[in-house]
From TrEMBL:
Its EC number is 2.4.2.2. It comes from Paenisporosarcina cavernae. This is Pyrimidine-nucleoside phosphorylase. SUPFAM superfamilies: Nucleoside phosphorylase/phosphoribosyltransferase catalytic domain, Nucleoside phosphorylase/phosphoribosyltransferase N-terminal domain, Pyrimidine nucleoside phosphorylase C-terminal domain. It is an enzyme of class 2 (transferase). It catalyses: uridine + phosphate = alpha-D-ribose 1-phosphate + uracil; thymidine + phosphate = 2-deoxy-alpha-D-ribose 1-phosphate + thymine; 2'-deoxyuridine + phosphate = 2-deoxy-alpha-D-ribose 1-phosphate + uracil. NCBIfam families: PRK05820.1, PRK06078.1, Y_phosphoryl. Signal peptide: none annotated. Residues 345-418 form the Pyrimidine nucleoside phosphorylase C-terminal domain. Belongs to the thymidine/pyrimidine-nucleoside phosphorylase family. Pfam families: Glycos_trans_3N, Glycos_transf_3, PYNP_C. Its cofactor is K(+).
Length: 434
């Protein structure tokens, strides 16, 4: 097989065979094909797209390019959740204990975040002592006992995706549905998921800015998952404004605890119940979404979900007493209220700009080497549609530096106030199943 023939075939809009796709991925992983040839193929895929079969083949070729996590020693159907990323998205912290409390095993492999705030692991590290360096045996044992464990990324998972993602980044080929869908799905499948629930975000704070683009990506991933034997469904949810009120690591842990106590923000709570219901049905613990939802509501109301969260934190070395006493979480030295300069309605809170403001405070990493400050962040006091009077607090800045003028200006600029009541964006745009 000659790689130039594969490039030519795709350039001309023809379908690649399974063998050609496997050859491409295995030879590229082994560094036997130069980046310039792969760049040409990526650009051909960008313009010519891939068929459903090609997308599934590409995904599985990437899964098979490295290690695969074997979770077969865990009883039950392992359902993983993936979010395409957003601002202040606290759902994983809530969903883990929530679905574990109704018996769905959550064996989560998580990473550190790059961007506005930390990833799930960074957030959990706001609980002093918490660590994710578990052996695979301890990880599996903990999931069997508590139904919930989080382990750091280990091993050589989907090396083909790592190489391709880096190359796409510098060849203007990131934004391609077959390439994004196969990249995300390969990582979930390699991490051992039997079933996958996808939360595809749309709006200013998301990768996919329009509902149409989000729908196309969601459909592509659902198609791939189901065609390779992983039950997969997706929801499309709004990320035009941040989710919940908290953006920042310790602040989001507090918000997650409050949500598990049944007194969290309405949007975060609703999204967790919708995603959680899907996970419970895919995990075989309920026959219908309605039944699943009432099971989840019950473990919030009776405190079992919060209890699982405490046991999980304790099992991984964290200070579980700070869950009852949230003042023990890392606290920022300065609190600054950002106040409305006029009266009206909040018409828009531009999620990515507010996320960037949180990153400027130190809540997230601009580069892999940046240090994260777990205490800092932004707590919104208003959401889109709320009425405000001049002088009302719009948001509180939690900082470890007294100079917050830049962050404060940014919040004022990107929390727009209008005279007319705006239409509030719908939280769940669509649910996509096979
Ligand atoms: N996230 C991924 O993991 N892969 C992509 O290609 C895009 C976003
Ligand atoms: Ca939040």
């Amino acid at each position: 097989m000659r790689f130039v023939d594969i490039i030519e075939k795709k350039r001309d809009g023809n379908e690649l065979t399974t063998e050609e796709i496997q050859f491409f991925i295995s030879e590229y992983t082994a560094e036997k094909i130069p980046d310039y040839q792969v760049s040409a193929l990526l650009m051909a895929i960008y313009f010519q797209d891939m068929t459903d079969r090609e997308r599934a083949d590409l995904t599985m070729a990437m899964v098979n390019s490295g290690d695969k996590i074997d979770l077969s020693a865990i009883e039950g159907i392992k359902v993983d959740k993936h979010s395409t990323g957003g601002v202040g998205d606290t759902t994983t912290l809530v969903l883990g204990p929530l679905v574990a409390a109704v018996g769905v095993p959550v064996a989560k492999m998580s990473g550190r975040g790059l961007g506005h705030t930390g990833g799930t692991i960074d957030k959990l590290e706001a609980l002093e002592g918490f660590h994710v360096e578990l052996s695979v045996e301890d990880f599996i044992q903990q999931v069997n006992e508590l139904k919930l464990a989080v382990i750091g990324q280990s091993g050589n998972l989907t090396p083909a995706d790592k190489k391709l993602y880096a190359l796409r980044d510098v060849t203007a080929t990131v934004n391609s549905i077959p390439l994004i869908a196969s990249s995300i799905m390969s990582k979930k499948i390699a991490a051992g998921a039997d079933a996958i629930v996808l939360d595809v975000k749309t709006g200013e704070g998301a990768f996919m800015k329009t509902v149409e683009d989000a729908r196309e990506l969601a459909k592509a991933m659902v198609q791939i998952g189901n065609s390779v034997g992983r039950k997969t469904m997706a929801i499309i949810s709004d990320m035009s404004q941040p989710l919940g009120y908290a953006i920042g690591n310790a602040l989001e842990v507090k918000e997650a605890v409050e949500t598990l106590q049944g007194k969290g923000p309405a949007d975060l709570t609703e999204l967790c119940l919708v995603l959680g219901s899907q996970m419970v049905v895919l995990g075989g613990k309920a026959g219908t979404l309605e039944e699943a939802r009432s099971m989840l509501q019950e473990v919030i109301d009776n405190g079992k979900a919060l209890e699982i969260f405490k046991l999980f934190v304790k099992a991984q070395g964290g200070d579980e007493t700070s869950i009852d006493d949230l003042e023990k979480l890392p606290q920022a030295s300065y609190k600054h209220h950002v106040k409305a300069r006029k009266s009206g309605y909040i018409s828009f809170i531009e999620a990515d700009e507010i996320g960037t403001a949180a990153m400027l405070l130190g809540a997230g990493r601009a580069t892999k080497e940046s240090e994260i400050d777990l205490a800092v962040g932004i707590l919104l006091n208003k959401k889109v549609g709320d009425r405000v009077q001049e002088g009302d607090v719009l948001a509180t800045i939690f900082a470890n530096n007294s100079d917050v003028a830049e962050v404060s200006d940014r919040i004022l600029e990107f929390m727009e106030i209008s005279d007319n009541k705006p239409t509030v964006p719908q939280l769940i745009e669509e649910i996509i199943t096979a």
